[in-house]
Amino acid sequence: MTATDPQGVPIDPRVEALVSDLIGRVADKWTMIVLEVLAAQGEMRFTVLGQHIPGISQKMLTRTLRAMERDGLLIRTIHPVIPPRVDYRLTDLGLSLGDAFCGVWRWAERNLTQIEAARHRFDSRP
Amino acid sequence: MTATDPQGVPIDPRVEALVSDLIGRVADKWTMIVLEVLAAQGEMRFTVLGQHIPGISQKMLTRTLRAMERDGLLIRTIHPVIPPRVDYRLTDLGLSLGDAFCGVWRWAERNLTQIEAARHRFDSRP
DNA sequence: GGTGCCTTCTTACCAAGGGTAAGCGGACGG
DNA sequence: CCGTCCGCTTACCCTTGGTAAGAAGGCACC
Questions:
Q1: Cβ-Cβ contacts under 8 Å, B20 against chain A
Q2: H/E element holding B110?
Q3: Which ipTM score applies to this complex?
Q4: Which domains does chain B have, with CATH numbers?
């Protein structure tokens, strides 16, 4: 899109496409939740992280964490002990993304009932 | 998760689950981009909207718009003319979500190069 | 009056992505 | 010697998304 940012400043289309891709990568349910949990709880190991995220599968947790590590959002520390212990901790970049998503969480909490009402209206109409 | 919000206030687990679901619904690439475009451009019709969102298919555009309408994020106005004309416009709720996502867009723009660098480091390592 | 076009969906079909569940590796407790 | 611990990984399947074609239906043109 030949978009403008919220201040009305025109954006280079090539940058625009890259940002869209990045948003596609990062605007993901699991990524957002991992971000939230790690921001609130600090360093955590794999299993505990999974326990704090109801509904996630091991596969998706692994995949999400790898992608986030690749993007530099978190650091994965392998402790060479038996049984294995792997800790995950947000980088400054990850923390800053967590802050950015914070507004979305607050929005979701604030508007939950309003959205449920809207859905109900939509579902029970001719 | 027995999470706390960013201010450290404990959250009811049931509310937590609902918020997670809502986030899963709303933290979607296409939803975010539609929100952005409509926030910047105001009312738009189907085809034009599609032209402003590179890479989206008609099917996903329809589906995304329906879901957003269901959630009360936008209003769909059908003008009974031939050929058909359908306009989409954000509600106040949709605009407020756009504001909330605004921080994420700015984050993405600001940290684009840093992320690309991180990816490159990750991909070219033993 | 047929032919074709316009726009907004919808649908049939296929590929890709996510869920489930089982296995692996390797020390240690019983 | 067998089970258990944890962090993955993999094989299989089902759901989801992309592609492309069509439907609806009045209008313009020949």
A1: 29, 33, 54-55
A2: helix B92-123
A3: 0.81
A4: 13-123 (1.10.10.10)
